[in-house]
Write a structure and sequence with these properties.
By secondary structure, the protein is of the alpha/beta class. The chain contains 17 helices and 16 strands. Helix 1 packs across helix 11. The longest helix has 35 residues, at 229-263. The radius of gyration is 21 Å and the shape is globular.
Length: 471
């Protein structure tokens, strides 16, 4: 099945011509929750997690250094779809110490236009099929009758294909499909575990059921305080295998959607965007978490939303379709605040004014482009920390400017060597502190009035509980 599907896609995606004259392209955004870039095959991962995404990347443009501006779903998607930083759109957690497990986050500010609202005004039919309840707090605004169901990839894929079967010819359209499977709990099918080549010991691991939910408080405390090195190594092996297999399952559904578009002769007239909202930590910085002891849940080293390290910010981003150069890799940093205005630029639709992102269509074509400096903010668990990243150097600090960490990402891409002791003696450290201070002053001055906390229905609360957000 996979081999036949890929053969169809390969023959279909070799060249995607420009959209037909006088017609605006359709827009298909395929997003994957909790997908870190270094677990995607075309980003260098050793397991075959993403054969369909790899084909799209080969026939489109892959952004090697795309970064989210927030490490969890609600503020990240709100930034992607408004072109604004979290402080400037209002959606996310608030207060000096955040904990969305006990305090509902705030909604997207009412007067901030979304990508869907802009495209609907421009004549697009809009629809969203998503699987994370937090998206009801703003990111689905502007979609006609959005579907938000906490269901697995096969159901999301089926709903998407059903909608395309009914409305694929209603040009132009914008469909957003969001898959949640790599998010806790990572329930992986044996078929997908075998497809990525895992050891049989993983399939038979007696702790497999528990590890599907290792983001729970008990698992986090156990890993941080009581597990031996050997136990942690074995648990990590199984957990990462489960995570990778869920990515493969989502990739299969993405392939089926693209195959349907090709059969309907819609693919060549559709701008395809594949992106993740944030990544996931697998004990990458557990020691820092233990030393900082900043998470009010008492958990460190696992999950997302609790730090601004690369495993949570570095995400895959691939574009394919009209006006997108095939087989291109952009190495320079690209913050996801730029996605909305750049997509609108490719569709030839005017972007709203007063946004932080810019239309980067010409930047994508420039052989001499520079990394786009960016900030990251809006933790879900912990203090109100912010980061400034210029492509090479990264500074993490609080809102008052007290530096928490400083890294040279060019020499130390995994952030293993904190240069915080040298931050005030290095030109780069001084420069980043100034840039972060200027950015922080601006976004606070331009922030909308505080938005209301999101009202969680019983259905939303149950969905969030199933994902481990609330108890």
């Amino acid at each position: 099945m996979i081999r036949n599907l890929l053969a169809v896609l390969l023959s279909a995606l070799v060249v995607v011509p420009a959209a037909r004259a006088q017609e605006r392209p359709n827009l298909l955004i395929l997003s994957i929750d909790t997908l870190r870039a270094d677990h995607v095959s075309c980003y260098g991962y050793e397991r075959p997690t993403t054969p369909s995404i790899d084909l799209v990347a080969a026939n489109g443009t892959r952004f090697a250094a795309a970064r989210s501006v927030a490490p969890w779903t609600l503020p990240s998607f709100a930034s992607m779809f408004t072109g604004r930083y979290p402080t400037r759109h209002g959606a996310g957690a608030s207060g000096p110490v955040r904990n969305v497990a006990t305090e509902p986050p705030r909604m997207l500010a009412a007067r901030v236009p979304t990508l869907a609202e802009v495209l609907r005004t421009a004549g697009y039919r809009t629809h969203a099929i998503t699987s994370n309840p937090y998206l009801r707090l703003g990111p689905v605004r502007g979609f006609d009758d959005p579907v938000v169901k906490a269901v697995r990839a096969d159901r999301i894929g089926a709903l998407s294909r059903e909608w395309l079967g009914r409305h694929g010819d209603d040009r132009p359209w914008y469909l957003w499909v969001h898959f949640n499977d790599p998010h806790e709990p990572t329930r992986a099918a044996d078929a997908q575990l075998r497809a990525i080549g895992v050891d049989e010991a993983v399939l038979d691991d007696p702790h497999r059921g528990a590890l599907e939910r290792w983001g729970d408080r008990d698992a986090g405390t156990y890993l941080g305080n009581r597990a031996s090195e050997a136990e942690v190594r074995d648990m990590l092996r199984t957990k990462i295998a489960l995570y990778d297999a869920t990515i493969r399952q989502v990739d299969l559904e993405i392939g089926l959607i693209l195959e349907l578009l090709q059969r309907r002769d819609l693919l060549r007239d559709t701008l395809v965007v594949i992106v993740a909202d944030h990544g996931e930590e697998f004990l990458d910085h557990a020691e820092e978490g233990r030393a900082w002891n900043h998470d009010p849940r008492g958990i460190w080293g696992i999950g997302h939303g609790h730090t601004l390290f690369e495993e949570q910010l570095h995400v895959p981003l691939v574009l394919m379709g009209p006006r997108v150069r095939p087989n291109q890799v952009i190495a320079e940093q690209f913050p996801l605040t730029e996605l909305m205005p750049t997509v609108l630029g490719l569709l030839r639709v005017r972007a709203p004014e007063d946004i932080d992102g810019e239309n980067r269509v010409e930047w994508m074509r420039d052989r001499q482009r520079a990394p786009i400096p960016m900030a990251a903010e809006s933790l879900a668990y912990g203090p109100d920390w912010v980061a400034w990243i210029d492509g090479r150097y990264k500074l993490i600090a609080d809102r008052l400017g007290h530096v928490q960490a400083f890294y040279d990402l060019e020499r130390d891409p995994y952030e293993l060597h904190d240069l915080v002791a040298q931050v005030d003696s290095l030109d780069a450290g001084i420069r980043l502190q100034e840039r972060l201070r200027d950015w922080n002053d601006r976004v606070i001055a331009e922030a909308p009035p505080a938005t209301a906390a999101g009202e969680l229905t019983d259905e939303m609360r149950e969905g969030l509980r199933s994902l481990g957000y609330v108890q």
